[in-house]
Amino acid sequence: MLADTHTPATGALRWAAHAVDNAIGALRAEPGSVAVADALRRADTAVAALPAGLVSTILNRLLDTAWDCHRAGADSSARLVAQRGAAARAMRLAS
After folding, report:
1. Which residues of 21-59 are buried (b: 16+ CB within 10 A; e: fewer)?
2. Which of 2, 3, 34, 39 could tie 26 with a disulfide, CB 3.0–4.6 Å?
């Protein structure tokens, strides 16, 4: 029988990834809206629940960039694209 790989840390990681993905989706749909700020706050909370490490650092950088885009009313930026790529790689390493 295979060991159960679902741990509280795995659940927190999935929750954070889902929250960040929702925030980026909201940013892409309506960059300057209040809904984006709400989604980014939820993502900040989810990422803050992660243990310190590579994934949380990279997700925090991605969220910082998403906040910058939101404040500028932009749905994306070159930095956001690069941070999303880094986050995707970090998530693959963590899983």
Report:
1. eebbebbeeebeeeebbebbebbbebbeebeeeebbebb
2. 39
For residue 49, which of 89, 76, 9, 21 has the smallest C-alpha distance? Answer: 9
* pTM summary value: 0.88
C-alpha torsion sign, points 10, 13, 17, 22: positive
- Domain ranges (residues) in the chain: 8-94
Token couple for 85: 């790529």
